[in-house]
């Protein structure tokens, strides 16, 4: 399908097949489409509403063109959000990664600089002294030996450069905002995926089912967070062994009191790092929200049998102070690569 035909189709609010979406995305990601064609297609898709078939086809193209990270590890999991919730919290998912690593899973963290927050994963890692300019083999060693490694999206998705200009000029959410979490370079089969809208909860679970994921929790909190919230109920679509079940969780189910998020908001990556370090040793409300999210990742990774057990394991890890050691170990490990 040619770009102009695809644009006309979606402008009529008609859905594309998997094959047609795959071909259009291939044209975008290989530089065959012009900036105006890319923008027209993305706007048309957003106005129509993307289907699970279209999203999975687009993600498949990105996976085919990415630079992969090949792992020799078990219990591999990613904790990631689409961003765009506007909450400006400290980086909960990144903090949770170190707790999960301390609990025995292997975290293949895929992320970028902040989209809507003051501190994306990459921003936080930079101020923590963790080097991002690693090749695939070095990232694999971090994950296998430390238990956590960070894949900086631009290093693994060079084909994204063709869409950067139109996306920046448009300044609105498009299909690309939800593709990042679907294109983990390590192929993490287990995931805690936070989304910015309730309609994406079942949709993204269906997409990940189509893409072959094993165990996933897609989450959206009623206060708008793209992660498990400390202040409101969180809606979940859980994919496990090809089946999807939807339910709602809240902190009290895990022996944690619901609390305001006001003390968890930050203005910079430096502010975020302070709260991350507190959370890694079990201090304050930062530790509680991290335990909830780390517990979810423990569960989907397979190191715990239930979500409740996962949260308890996360709290035990925080009490041991091992997650903070993991943070420092990763910083040292990546510095060695730079020498």
From TrEMBL:
Record keywords: Amino-acid biosynthesis, Aromatic amino acid biosynthesis, Glycosyltransferase, Magnesium, Metal-binding, Transferase, Tryptophan biosynthesis
Positions that bind Mg(2+) 1: 93, 227
Cofactor note (record): Binds 2 magnesium ions per monomer.
Annotated binding of 5-phospho-alpha-D-ribose 1-diphosphate, by residue: 81, 84-85, 91-94, 109-117, 121
EC top class, as a word: transferase
Pfam families per record: Glycos_trans_3N (PF02885), Glycos_transf_3 (PF00591)
Biological or metabolic pathway of the protein: Amino-acid biosynthesis; L-tryptophan biosynthesis; L-tryptophan from chorismate: step 2/5
Enzyme nomenclature, EC number: 2.4.2.18
Gene Ontology MF, one: magnesium ion binding
GO CC field: cytosol
Matches recorded under InterPro entries: Anthranilate_Pribosyl_Tfrase, Glycosyl_Trfase_fam3, Glycosyl_Trfase_fam3_N_dom, Glycosyl_Trfase_fam3_N_dom_sf, Nuc_phospho_transferase
Function statement: Catalyzes the transfer of the phosphoribosyl group of 5-phosphorylribose-1-pyrophosphate (PRPP) to anthranilate to yield N-(5'-phosphoribosyl)-anthranilate (PRA).
Family: In the C-terminal section; belongs to the anthranilate phosphoribosyltransferase family. Belongs to the anthranilate phosphoribosyltransferase family.
Subunit relationships: Homodimer.
Protein name, UniProt field: Anthranilate phosphoribosyltransferase
Organism: Halomonas urumqiensis
């Amino acid at each position: 399908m040619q770009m102009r035909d695809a644009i006309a189709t979606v402008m009529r609010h008609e859905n594309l097949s998997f094959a047609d979406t795959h071909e259009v995305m291939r044209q975008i990601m290989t530089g065959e489409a012009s900036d105006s064609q890319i923008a027209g297609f993305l706007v048309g898709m957003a106005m129509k509403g993307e289907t699970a078939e279209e999203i999975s086809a687009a993600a498949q193209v990105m996976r085919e063109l990415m630079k992969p990270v090949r792992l020799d590890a078990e219990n591999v999991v990613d904790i990631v959000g689409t961003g765009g919730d506007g909450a400006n919290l400290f980086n909960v998912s990144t903090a949770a990664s170190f707790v999960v690593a301390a609990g025995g899973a292997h975290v293949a963290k895929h992320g970028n600089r902040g989209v809507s927050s003051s501190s994306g994963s990459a921003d936080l890692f930079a101020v923590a002294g963790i080097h991002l300019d690693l090749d695939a083999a070095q990232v694999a060693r971090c994950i296998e030996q430390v238990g956590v490694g960070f894949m900086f999206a631009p290093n693994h998705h060079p084909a994204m450069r063709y869409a950067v200009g139109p996306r920046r000029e448009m300044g609105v959410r498009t299909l690309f905002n939800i593709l990042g979490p679907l294109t983990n370079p390590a192929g993490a089969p287990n995931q805690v995926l936070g989304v910015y809208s309730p309609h994406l909860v079942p949709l993204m679970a269906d997409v990940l089912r189509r893409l072959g994921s094993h165990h996933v929790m897609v989450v959206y909190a009623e206060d708008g967070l793209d992660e498990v919230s400390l202040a409101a109920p969180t809606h979940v679509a859980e994919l496990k062994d090809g089946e999807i079940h939807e339910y709602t969780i809240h902190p009290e189910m895990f022996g944690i009191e619901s609390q305001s998020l006001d003390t968890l908001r930050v203005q910079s990556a430096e502010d975020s790092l302070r709260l991350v370090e507190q959370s890694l040793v079990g201090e304050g409300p930062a530790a509680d929200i991290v335990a909830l999210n780390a517990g979810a990742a423990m569960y989907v990774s397979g190191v715990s049998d239930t979500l409740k057990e996962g949260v308890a394991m996360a709290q035990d890890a925080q009490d041991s102070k091992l997650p903070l050691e993991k943070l420092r170990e990763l910083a040292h490990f990546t510095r060695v690569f730079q020498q």
